[in-house]
Structure formats: C-alpha cells, structure tokens
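Changelog-adjacent note: as of this version, every example in the card shows the full chain rather than a window. The one below runs 203 residues end to end.
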Amino acid sequence: MTQYFSVHPTHPQRRLLAQAADIVRSGGVIVYPTDSTYALGCHIGDKDALDRIRAIRRLDTLHHFTLVCRDLSELSNFARVDNTSYRILKHYTPGPFTFLLHASREVPRRLVHPKRRTIGIRVPNHVIAQELLEVLAEPLMSTSLILPGTALPLTDPEEIRDRLDHQVDLIIDGGACGLTATTVVDLTETPPVVVRPGLGVFE
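Full-length structure tokens:
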C-alpha cells in the first residue's frame, strides 16, 4: 500500500519529512516535488530501489540518473569539479538545472553512465525537497516522473496516486508541480553544452 503525505508547500511538517526519510533509508521508492517537476527518488546505496525506478519508467542502463543534493558541500564525494565548473554550479544552484560531471572513483558503478563515466548533479530550489534532503542528510538518487508512453511528467498528486498506487512506497503531495523538466548542462565539455533545454535559462 502506498503511503500519501499532504505536506504544506511553504511550511512542510518536519515529522512527515522525517518519516519520508526513514522510508528512503529502509529501501523505499518515493515521489516528491521539486522546482521543476515531480520526481522519483530512492537511497543512493539501494540497488533494488533503483531497479524498481527503472521498471516504473522502463529505463535502460544508459539513462542518466541524478544525484539531488541540498547544496554543493558534498559535491567532491561524487564528482570531479574544476574551478570553472564550480563557479558555474555556484551561480546556477539552487535552481532547475541538472549538471553532468565526471564521476569520482568512489561513486558506485550502477550510479554512473556506463559509457561516459558521468553523473548528474542537481540542487533544487524547492522548500519541500530542501527540507527532505536536510532531514535525510545525504543526496537522493532521482529521475523525473515521466511514465512510459507519455511525453510530459505527471504533475497532479491525485493522478500520481491513481497511476502509481502499489508501485511506490510514498507520495509526497506538495501541490501541483510544473510540466517542464530541468535544463541539462554538460560541464565535461569546454565550453559547457546544453544537452536538454528545459525550465532553467543557461547563458
């Protein structure tokens, strides 16, 4: 049975987010709001949860998952960043951007693009997502909530519950989200390349 938490969009209930963090730590798959779209998330160390997300979205092994972080303080644990890239990250985060970076040697292979050895990094500008990440005290492994055969992400929490009941462990209802995904910027290229235009404006 999927749990369903109605969380205040500007003053989220800490006890509910603490329960959500416990569900993530215990191997659960959650749906949560961001500043772009709703997203699927799980613990970064849980292979079974990641495989469940792959099954829900029917993703192949080449799909770029994203590490959703509260800020840039843990960046060096997951990615190799030079001074230029760090300045770009600092300027555009938090915000609706996903940045592709070279993964560090410490990152588990299943979290890294198998051909390019890159990983996506994102710092959302959304109160619920930020509070959840603070309580969790580590990044979430995430991907946008776009179901197979659809071009747009699910944005209405009630529809999400209808479509994903029994497939995820928790839905965090923070109100309607947008329909436009993040802008994806490849920082492994010089100069950086926008590989997917989205909500964020990268100049």
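Structural remarks: The chain has a mean pLDDT of 94.
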